[in-house]
């Protein structure tokens, strides 16, 4: 009997931000599930519209026996479109269809997707995917039990992804869950606050199999267990791992400088840190459990160890006033961050912040495709939605500019020359100018984003009389 064709689809998102233009990281959930299905004998594959650079076609949809979609909030609208198109195509060709949706959006707000799919999976699907595909589970809403032994999960087979060779930076997940409780984060809603992790040996076994430009540990908090990070880094050195790697960490990892030093020795070249805000009051409102002093220490320690920083900030916190934009820009440039990712604080479904905004009648709309951190979706407390949107754009433009790129190039060259004690003309090894190119190219990307979103900017401008939030009370 011919095996059923199962395709796991990650839909494309809205017009993306500066950072996403340089590195597209696929969701790992669909790849894990496709790997399990393929090993069980299904004709399984993954179609990621962002990696493929195109929409899935009618012909491709027609050939699918079971369509599985994994969506974040910003891709859920596109996911519904794909499911509807698939059902229509299969029906027109007198073929049965079956649609299943999972992922963080379906898990946090299942009522939004239930009408559009045959089955909705809430939670992590590895333990139930085979029973689900075999039809042994017939419930409309399926609650999945979290896998506790992450070492038992298969190593994801990236060759199941359409155009997999386009993935230059391999994403690796080594843990799930986060012990913190930030009010804007949907991670704990999906994965819980119990920090589950793979053994250092399992982690290094996996990354030794990859031939790529670099590795990115996608864990929401890779360094939640410092002893484990130290062991992973030591094993990398022992086993001759020689690829540059990066990861997401909190500022508090720098309370253990010896761990940061070992990370650098094993090849860590840049870290992605959710600084979120330079406003201590906003950090407190976000329940971030860090202060501006923690952020400044983190920058000093990482830069002191030769590790670059991609700083991630959220503007428009409950305590933010209009001066936060200029102060944030000055902070980023003064501290010579290699790259930044600005966002507006966004109430994603399932989060504490979303529930607060909903209770206070401050949500402007539920156009999910715009819940990407770049589009203002609520009424801030101390400014209008339009002022917040413009402030975010201004922060991006202050950092990503031609002038900033030239200045960064000069500083990078001079700093490197001084550090090596050589004259400019005798240097044989030039420093990395990747951050310089990012600044210059980022300028054009920001301008194109603004042009693409003119209609939305006009919408926010026209409703400015409804805000700040006190005007809605």
Strand tally is: 14
- Strand order in the largest sheet: 2-1-3-4-5-6
What is the annotated CATH architecture of the largest domain? Alpha-Beta Horseshoe
Average pLDDT number: 90
Q: What is the terminal-to-terminal distance?
A: 63 Å
At the fold tier of CATH, the topology name of the largest domain is pyruvate-formate lyase- activating enzyme
Major β-sheet profile: 6 strands, parallel
Number of domains: 2
CATH class of the largest domain: Alpha Beta
What's the number of helices? 18
Q: Which class do the helix and strand fractions yield?
A: alpha/beta
Unreliable segments (pLDDT under 50, ≥5 consecutive)? 416-431, 467-473
Radius of gyration: 23 Å
Please indicate the percent range of residues in DSSP E strands (runs of 2 or more).
5-15%
The CATH homologous superfamily of the largest domain: tm_1862 like domain
Overall geometric form: globular
Q: What share of the residues lie within helices?
A: 25-40%
Description:
The chain is an alpha/beta fold and 473 residues long. It has two domains: 5-143, Rossmann fold (3-Layer(aba) Sandwich); 168-462, pyruvate-formate lyase- activating enzyme. 39% of the residues lie in helices and 14% in strands. The chain contains 18 helices and 14 strands. It has helices at 28-39, 49-52, 58-62, 76-92, 104-108, 129-133, 187-191, 200-207, 226-238, 257-265, 280-285, 292-304, 324-334, 352-359, 385-399, 402-420, 434-452, 454-462; strands at 5-10, 43-48, 66-70, 99-102, 119-122, 141-143, 169-172, 175-176, 196-197, 214-217, 245-249, 268-276, 308-315, 339-344. A six-stranded parallel beta sheet has the order 2-1-3-4-5-6, sandwiched between helices. Helix 13 links the parallel strand 13 and strand 14. It is globular. The N and C termini lie far apart (63 Å). The relative contact order is 0.09. The model is unreliable at 416-431 and 467-473 (pLDDT under 50).
């Amino acid at each position: 009997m011919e095996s059923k064709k199962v395709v796991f689809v990650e839909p494309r998102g809205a017009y993306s931000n500066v950072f996403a233009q340089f590195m597209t990281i696929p969701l790992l959930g669909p790849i894990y599930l496709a790997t399990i299905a393929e090993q069980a004998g299904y004709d399984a594959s993954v179609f990621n519209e962002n990696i493929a650079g195109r929409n899935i076609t009618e012909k491709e949809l027609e050939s699918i026996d079971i369509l599985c979609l994994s969506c974040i909030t910003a891709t859920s609208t596109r996911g519904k479109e794909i499911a509807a198109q698939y059902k229509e195509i299969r029906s027109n060709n007198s073929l049965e269809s079956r649609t299943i949706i999972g992922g963080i959006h379906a898990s946090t707000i299942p009522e939004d997707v239930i009408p559009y799919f045959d089955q909705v999976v809430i939670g992590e699907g590895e333990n139930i995917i085979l029973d689900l595909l075999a039809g042994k589970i017939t419930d409309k809403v399926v609650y999945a039990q979290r896998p506790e032994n992450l070492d038992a999960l298969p190593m994801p087979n990236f060759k199941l992804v359409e155009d997999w060779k386009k993935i230059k930076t391999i994403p690796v997940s080594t843990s799930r869950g986060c012990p913190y409780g930030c009010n804007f984060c949907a991670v704990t809603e999906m994965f819980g606050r119990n920090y589950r992790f793979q053994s250092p040996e399992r982690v290094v076994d996996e990354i030794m199999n990859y031939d790529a430009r670099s590795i990115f540990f996608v864990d929401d908090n890779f360094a939640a267990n410092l002893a484990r990070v130290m062991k992973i880094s030591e094993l990398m050195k022992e086993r001759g791992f020689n690829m540059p790697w990066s990861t997401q960490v909190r500022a508090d990892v720098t309370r253990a400088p010896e761990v940061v030093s070992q990370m650098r020795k094993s090849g860590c070249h840049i870290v992605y840190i959710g600084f979120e805000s330079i406003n201590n009051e906003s950090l407190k409102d976000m329940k971030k459990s860090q202060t501006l002093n923690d952020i400044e220490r983190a920058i000093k320690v990482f830069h002191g160890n030769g590790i670059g920083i991609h700083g991630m900030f959220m503007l428009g916190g409950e305590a933010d006033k209009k001066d936060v934009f200029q102060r944030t820009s000055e902070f980023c440039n003064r501290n010579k961050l290699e790259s930044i990712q600005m966002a507006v604080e966004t109430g994603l479904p399932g989060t504490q912040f979303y529930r607060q905004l909903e209770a206070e009648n401050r949500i402007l709309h539920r156009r999910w495709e715009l819940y990407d951190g770049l589009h203002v979706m609520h009424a801030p407390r101390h400014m209008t939605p339009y002022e917040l949107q413009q402030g975010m754009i201004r922060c991006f433009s202050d950092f990503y500019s031609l002038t900033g790129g030239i200045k960064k190039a000069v500083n990078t060259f001079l700093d490197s020359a001084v550090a090596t004690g050589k004259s400019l003309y005798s240097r044989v090894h030039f420093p990395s100018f990747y951050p310089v190119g990012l600044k210059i190219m980022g300028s054009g990307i920001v301008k194109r984003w603004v042009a693409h979103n003119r209609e939305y900017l006009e919408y926010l401008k026209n409703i400015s009389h409804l805000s700040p939030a006190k005007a809605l009370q």
